[in-house]
Structure formats: structure tokens, C-alpha cells
Amino acid sequence: MSEEKLLTSRENYLKAGIHIGTKFKTKYMEPFIFKVRSDGLSILNVKKIDERLGIAAKFLARYDPNEVLVVCRRENGWKAVKLFSKLTGIKCIAGRYRPGMLTNPFLDNFTEIKLLFVVDPWPDKNAINDAIKIGIPIIALCDTNNSANLIDFVVPCNNKGKKSLGLIFWILTKEYLKNRGLIKKDSELSVKEKDFGTEED
Q1: Are strands 33-36 and 42-44 parallel, antiparallel or unpaired?
Q2: For residue 63, what are the CA distances in angstroms to 73, 123, 144, 168?
Q3: I need a surface site. Which of 23, 49, 129, 165 has the fewest CB within 10 A?
Q4: What is the pLDDT of residues 180-198, one digit of tens each?
């Protein structure tokens, strides 16, 4: 795997533990699993993670920021998604998603979008259910234990760790901005990788 073809170095991926799955694996995630360690943990394929992150970023970039919503119930991802939102202009919900937000125009927080991005299909299932009702595509970060039957595009990864989620949203930020023509290279991004939570506080 040549480094120049990756969105970040292989070392960065491994250091963030983006490839470390759980001891449980679903049939949906089996194609993305590289091996199962002796301790029972499933290890995800780094090349597939990288490929799918790149595809997800290109797909996101087809939409204006106000047409996308990122939902993250998992606290380990709050810092990363908030910074992603600030830099890209894409709306995010860090915390509880109120059911009906995408489907009920009488709610004070009613939001019209064309694409939903969730950090974990299980805690973010209310947002997924609403997106299905209105027929919009869903991108989800999925660990080895996730069911992905309701997801349109899966990005396999460790979607529980703070460092892993920090790295993912740093990559998505820079790739989204590059694909939208707002920056030309990574070095033009005004914040560093560590600002997303890739290092211990």
C-alpha cells in the first residue's frame, strides 16, 4: 500500500486505532474485516477504510453545506463533529437527535436536508429512521458490530474511540474542502489534526 495514495499515512491510521473493531461482527461488516486477533477482536482493512473515506468525502462535496446533517450521539465524537461543522458549514447535532426533526415541519427545529451522515447507526437510529421516511441517502461510520441494512454507504472504522473519530473528521474536513475547491492542499487547512481530538487531552 503506497503512502501517497492514502488520505493520511498508514502510521496515522494505526496510531489512532481506526482499524480496531469489536469482538462481535455482523454479516454486513464481514467484507471489511482483515482478520480476527487471538483475543477475539476483529481488525478492519485499513485500505478499505481509506478508500471509503475518500468516496464519502467526494459524495459529501456534491452537496451544499446546508443540505447535509451530521448526527453524533456518541460523546467521544462531539469535539470532532463540532469542529468539522465549524470549518465546513455543515450542520451537526452532537448529542441527542430529536425524532421528527427531518419529518415534522411543525417542530421548531425542523430541518430540510438532502443527505444524512451518522457516526454510529445504533445510537443514531432515530435520525436514520427519519431519513428513511423522507427518502434521502444515509452515510454511516460502522464498526464491526453494526448492522448496516438501512445504510446506503458504509465507512468501516472504529466509530467509538476519540482518536479514531478525530482522525476521521480531520480527513473528511480536508477532503470535503478540497473537493469543493475551497483549499488546494492539506497544509491550507487552518487547524491541525490534533485539534479534532486525535491526541490525548
Answers
A1: antiparallel
A2: 23, 25, 28, 19
A3: 23
A4: 999 999 889 989 999 999 8
Question: What integer best gives the mean pLDDT of the chain?
Answer: 94
What cell was used for 99?
Answer: 425524532
Task: List residues bridging with 33 in a β-sheet.
Answer: 44
**Can you tell me which residue has the cell 445510537?**
123
Q: Are 173 and 82 in contact (CB under 8 A)?
A: no
**DSSP-based three-state secondary structure for 79:** helix
What is the spatial distance between Cα 171 and Cα 173, in angstroms, rounded to a whole number?
5
Note the pLDDT tens digit of each residue in 108-157: 999 999 999 999 999 999 999 999 999 999 999 999 999 999 999 999 99
Kindly tell me if the per-residue pLDDT of 4 is higher than 70.
no
- pTM beyond 0.90, yes or no: yes
Helices (H), 61-190: 78-88, 125-134, 162-179
Portion of the chain with pLDDT greater than 90, in percent = 93
d(CA 191, CA 83): 9
Q: Which is nearest to 142 in space by CA: 11, 27, 6, 57?
A: 27
Cell (9 digits) for 115: 443527505
Residue 4: count other Cβ atoms within 10 Å of its Cβ.
5
CA-based R_g, the chain, Å? 16
- Ordered by where they begin, the domains of the chain are 3-186 (3.40.50.10490)
